[in-house]
Write a structure and sequence with these properties.
It is built from 24 helices and 27 strands. Helix content is 33%, strand content 18%. It has 695 residues and is α/β, with parallel strands linked by helices. The longest helix is centred in the first third of the chain and has 20 residues. The strands form seven sheets. It has an eight-stranded parallel beta barrel, surrounded by six helices. It has a five-stranded parallel sheet with strand order 15-14-13-16-27.
Length: 695
């Protein structure tokens, strides 16, 4: 019955794209995880895409913004297909993905003004007009006749390399990059044959398509990623974009269209396009649907769909032919297999942290805020089975702490067949995430807790709530392994009068009173932003003070833009480059001495309440008490751990192995806690966890 039920699921129906049979309707659209080496998709890049193919998706589009020309340098860790050196790497990647039954395509682009002129070969960026993009900050050179012919040749040569490299097809990127910059009247102010009318603005894109078709032949699949609506005054309207799609169809050179919306030319534009939590989900399905109604070409959609219910609706209602679930696959690359076998409820759903997107736009590699295995497939698996080399049924693990690090530790150990008991001091799971989820814009963080809790229940992990466990109780449990995940406690403010201020944990758990509220942020991440939102929504007049040069310094562009827009609308004020020097009471108010960290100049301001975020101190008292009982003195070889191995030096006469994860080690973020838990509990040698009982 389950097989019959799932055979009727529209998401699992195959789709035929010319001669290519796609096994279902779910794809991962092109993006740049920044796993490249020398512009090549080497092992890490290949394994990342292979994992999604193993997980059952139909098509993975690699090479988000694969550059074709030397004056289109990488802005966020992209591939470079401007010479033949990439072909052997293409061949390895395509063979690997296809070996798992998925199709694979590559996206090609020239970025135009959407890159920097002070990287790569220090060539000027090029564009239709001299209009600077705020996100990448370069003033472009206006393209000349020689540039048009060269760019078309470069696209054609790169397309040929993709065909030789074994791809099933390619996608040319128009949206927001060079080809799209010509199409949009917002960025094209030319008065020659490449500007003015839509026909003229489309001239370069048609010229490039013609060169590509001539190079790869009529049988090779060629698609276009296009804009469905720029959502900007002076930009392409929805009707304009429908006409663009019709023109591409009429050219006879395009096999599919991949539709999205927005104009990511600044931080808020990027957030509109690749939305973090706090933004509406699947906002542009109707935009894609309008184009599908207007042209007979297959329509794909790259629009931030995270859940299968929405994806299923998109296919069933005919809005699109293939659904892009890119960040959803970063969170869970096996989501299609889970759907196919009837485990849809066990899919780890992307909650929209945008940790992946923002890291790439900060010059880092893409990592998932809730799945630490993504991008680390070489040494950490996404799935586990009971370890056959050890008698796991006799192994017993104690996990202390029900925050994300403790929950992930318990999950992985249970997946490996270990009996797990988790002690949680409070009556709920989730730790600090419960505080983060209390703000309206970050409430989706609850999804991280919910998935981990559901997995623990499914795996039969015994959870003991309201348990302030002591060392003697843990010893009495006779464990083979003890995982300390007791987290941290707020660090003190360490200024005169600090007792008059409270950590933001107090604000989030108890609320703020109406009046003037100061929040001092010495961390620069979401923590103080969530607190400021919570206080302002309760009617407080909030000022955020930070020693950094900007508020929430560590947030990437999408989260920063959305958070700041919301806080500005709530009337929150900001004082940057400043710290609290002292606090004193003056009548019913608190006088706060605020010192500029650059000039040293001080000023005194009055507030009703003062809160602060200064990280945490390790809550490690129990860990210290347990160390003498452990075989390894609580030590893990750091160098080995950095290489992906767990080596436990120490005293072999101890009772159990003792490890720590998350903030009980040091004050870090959610991903760090999950990564600690995953790499230790996934790689620890279970056969070494024999117990030597006390006499």
């Amino acid at each position: 019955m389950a097989d019959l039920q799932h055979s009727k699921d529209p998401l699992l129906a195959p789709f035929v794209l010319r001669s290519l049979v796609l096994r279902n309707r779910i794809m991962s659209t092109a993006h740049a995880p920044s796993y490249v080496e020398n512009g090549w998709p080497t092992e890490r890049y290949r394994l990342y895409h292979e994992e999604k193919a193993k997980g059952g998706l139909a098509l993975t589009m690699i090479g988000g913004s694969t550059n074709v020309s030397s004056d289109s340098p990488s802005a966020f860790g992209q591939l470079y297909a401007g010479n033949d050196d990439i072909i052997p790497w293409f061949e390895q990647l395509t063979a690997g993905v296809k070996s798992h039954g998925a199709a694979v395509m590559c996206q090609l682009t020239h970025m135009g003004r959407r890159t920097a002129d002070d990287v790569g070969n220090w060539l000027p960026v090029i564009a239709p007009s001299n209009i600077r993009e705020r996100a990448h900050r370069s003033y472009p050179k206006i393209m000349e006749a020689s540039d048009f012919a060269r760019v078309a040749r470069d696209f054609a040569a790169a397309a040929t390399r993709c065909k030789v490299g074994g791809f099933d097809g390619i996608e040319l990127l128009s949206h927001s990059h060079l080809l799209g910059q010509f199409i949009s009247p917002m960025t094209n102010r030319r008065e020659d044959e490449y500007g003015g009318s839509l026909e003229n603005r489309l001239r370069l894109a048609i010229q490039v398509l013609g060169a590509v078709r001539e190079a790869v032949g009529s049988d090779f699949i060629v698609g276009m990623r296009i804009t469905g609506d720029e959502l900007k005054d002076g930009g392409l309207t929805q009707q304009d974009c429908v006409e663009v799609a019709q023109r591409f169809h009429e050219s006879g050179m395009v096999d599919f269209l991949n539709v999205l919306a927005g104009a990511p030319y600044d931080d808020l534009g990027l957030a509109d396009w690749v939305s973090p939590m706090g933004m509406p989900a699947a906002r542009f399905l109707t935009v894609a649907g309008k184009i599908r109604e207007a042209v007979p070409l297959p329509v794909f959609h790259a629009g931030g769909i995270a859940d299968l219910a929405t994806a299923r609706h998109a296919i069933r209602e005919g809005a699109v032919d293939m659904v892009g679930m890119t960040r959803a696959h970063i969170a869970d690359p096996h989501l299609v297999n889970k759907l196919r076998r009837g485990d849809e409820s066990r899919i780890r759903i992307c909650v929209g942290m945008n940790f992946c997107v923002d890291r790439v736009n900060q010059g880092k590699d893409a990592l998932c805020g809730q799945n630490a295995a993504t991008g680390r497939e070489r040494f950490i698996p996404h799935t586990f089975t009971a370890d056959r080399t050890a008698d796991t049924s006799s192994l017993r693990a104690i996990v202390v702490g029900g925050g994300p690090g403790g929950m992930e530790s318990a999950r992985v150990l249970a997946e490996r067949g270990v009996q797990v008991v988790l002690f949680e001091a409070s009556g709920t799971m989730g730790g600090q995430l419960n505080l983060a989820a209390r703000s309206g814009s970050r409430r989706q963080m609850q999804g991280v807790i919910d998935w981990l809790a559901s997995e623990l229940d499914h795996l039969g992990v015994e959870v003991r709530f309201n348990s302030l466990v002591e060392a003697s109780e843990i010893v009495a449990e006779q464990p083979n392994l003890v995982v300390m995940a007791t987290g941290g406690l707020p660090r003190s403010l360490d200024v005169p009068g600090e007792g008059l201020a409270s950590p933001i944990w107090t604000l989030l758990s108890e609320g703020a009173q109406p009046g003037r509220v100061l929040i001092f942020d010495d961390r620069g991440s979401h923590h103080a932003a969530v607190a400021a939102e919570a206080a302002a929504e309760r009617g407080a007049r909030v000022t955020v003070v930070t020693p950094d040069r900007t508020a929430f310094h560590d947030l990437g562009p999408t989260n920063y833009a959305v958070s700041m827009r919301h806080l500005y609308r709530l009337g929150v004020d900001f004082i940057t480059d400043s710290e609290i020097a002292a606090i004193s009471r003056e009548g019913n108010q608190l006088s706060v001495c605020i010192r500029n960290v650059l000039s040293g100049k001080e000023k005194h301001l009055q507030y009703d309440q003062v809160f602060y975020e200064a990280g945490t101190d390790a809550n490690d008292e129990l860990y210290v008490q347990l160390r003498p009982y452990s075989r390894n003195d609580g030590v893990i070889d750091v160098e080995a751990l950095a290489r992906g191995n767990v080596v436990l030096p120490g005293n072999h006469d101890g009772l159990f192995t003792l490890v720590r994860v998350g903030d009980v080690v040091s004050s870090r973020n959610l991903h760090a806690a999950l990564f600690d838990a995953l790499r230790i509990c996934a790689r620890i040698d279970l056969s070494s966890l024999t117990r030597i009982d006390a006499p």
